[in-house]
Write a structure and sequence with these properties.
single chain, 125 residues, mainly alpha, 5 helices
Length: 125
């Protein structure tokens, strides 16, 4: 099974388990997959990689948003804006990594390489 087929299976599997599509495959991951980067979905990634990817994405996006909407008009020093964005990214990344690793343990998920387990057809109970 190729990466796209596994992701499609995962989305359908998690949908049947009552997990939303944006929790299963967040927009940033969908963007990476469309670009041809085959990273495992966050439920299957390591704590460090989730924290890094989500924290980096959030820190940059939130920092740019804050700069253009609020901080620039308040003449905030760029160093303070960068430090604040980095801290926000770290906090968000760690929180999301903790959530996804907790959920993966709760769902008793195998490694991404072993997903789906043989005989675990979507729709069969």
């Amino acid at each position: 099974m190729d990466h796209q087929a596994k992701v499609a299976h995962l989305v359908e599997d998690f949908k049947q388990r009552g997990i939303g599509q944006y929790t299963t495959a967040p927009p940033f991951y969908r963007l990476l997959w469309r670009m041809g980067i085959e990273v495992p979905p966050p439920h299957f990634a390591s704590f460090g990689s989730i924290a890094l990817m989500m924290g980096l994405y959030f820190g940059v996006a939130w920092g740019l948003f804050m700069w253009f909407v609020i901080w620039r008009d308040e003449n905030m020093p760029i160093v303070i804006a960068v430090i604040t964005s980095v801290l926000a990214g770290v906090l968000f990344g760690v929180a999301m990594a903790a959530f996804f690793r907790w959920r993966a343990r709760k769902l008793a998920l195998p490694r991404w390489e072993d997903y789906p387990r043989p005989g675990s057809e979507v729709g069969s109970k």
